[in-house]
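Me: I'm a chemist; would you kindly supply a protein sequence with its structure tokens?

Assistant:
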Amino acid sequence: MADTQTTAENVLRDPSRLPRVPEPAAMVIFGASGDLTSRKLVPALYDLAASRRLPMEFAVVGLSRTELGHEEFRARLREGLEENRPGRISEDVWESFSRGIFYLAGDSKDPETYTELREFLQKLDTQRGTGGNRIFYLSSSPSLFPAIVERLGEAGLNEGEGVGYSRLVVEKPFGRDLESARELNGDIKRYFRERQIYRIDHYLGKETVQNILALRFSNGIFEPVWNQNYVDHVQITVAESDGVGDRGAFYEEAGTLRDILQNHMMQVLCLTAMEPPVAFDADSVREEKVKVLKAVRRIPEAEVDGSAVRGQYGEGWVWGGKVPGYRQEAAVSAESSTETYAALKLFVDNWRWAGVPFYVRSGKRLPKKATEIAIQFKKTPHTPFAGAETRGLEPNTLVIRVQPEEGVSLKIGAKVPGAGFEVSSVNMDLLYGTAFLEEAPDAYQRLLLDLMLGDPTLFIRSDEAEGAWSILDPVMRSWSENGGEIATYPAGDWGPQEADELLADDGREWRRP
């Protein structure tokens, strides 16, 4: 009882500790019959409703060409929710939440669709009390983004009704290269101001990714050594054990460089390398990230082979089962030169990181699913112990694990128990699941809440998207000109031999997550 009273008193003294609940709003999802809506968006919104973070005056309007009624759409979403939240669905919460779910069938290129949409949203303002606030979520094919934005602008839906707001959410990919990214940003900004645009990358909603900032800027022991005086190199890994599955057609167009490195990994690199922001707000944080992207040394096309490696998985074994090679996957060309693995050596040319290589890699059909950032520190300048006493001693390494087991690990040297004097490396581990005794929220849950609250800190600004493309453009052009020349690696391996040589040439080697 005393603890409850103390908590209540603390909240009264500090109103900022009260849960943030957004204003009423209507969220329109373009491409609502697709997988993202049922697998990610609606489950995240349901979780917000279950935790009372969603206003009662909230509505979801699905829009797609598929002919569906309101009840049929709700039933489909309920099936997806049961797959994602088995045994954890409250009938009371679902009944209340689903009453605000609606569906409109229409062609996103047809102006009549937007006339009908505007009239329907005005009706919801009256029936559901959504207050004229509009969120338009582009979950459709990226090729439709310019047309949807143009139709929204022509229908006057780029401005909220009355005193309400209008926000636009753009799913990745943000273009296919620097030129198309600039063109897309230009198309969007014809009708929406930058403060209305929320470019979403779900990686930034992951608790462990956000914890990079907390680890760096809330602990006095890390920031003094977070620089070229103490750090030998940094490795960022996004490994997947799965193949492309039924996404063969998509992957043939994208490849690992566009699918993972341009967005997820460039964002993680920025958070790892950025300077401390003056405040934890959108402008301050994103400004420091842009500075990192500007400082990354561009790789000349003629020098790509010495700084970048691409590979493609062949037949092999993963988790005890034989799996086909990439060229045997559905909707993949038998002569495909699309990369399923990419590794780059990058340098951030500023005062803090001068000379420190950042090795980034991502691949499919690797031995395990793992995402981590490893900061390896320089060896001690001198050790008084004999060589035989330090055979098991490795450099200090700080590892931030994003998935699957979220946590932080610090490798340090310690004496091995026994009569002799042997020093070896041991890990000090922090697992979030056991430390905080609660499940981390889904990334989309955090991002959708911030979106409705109008907080763009964890969303990508236009110059961020273009900055990431400018780094990778020379690599993509070089690989395109080389045509079908691509290294291969057996499924279940850690990538092509050329990737190992990329680090071996510098006297280093890849970590095994």
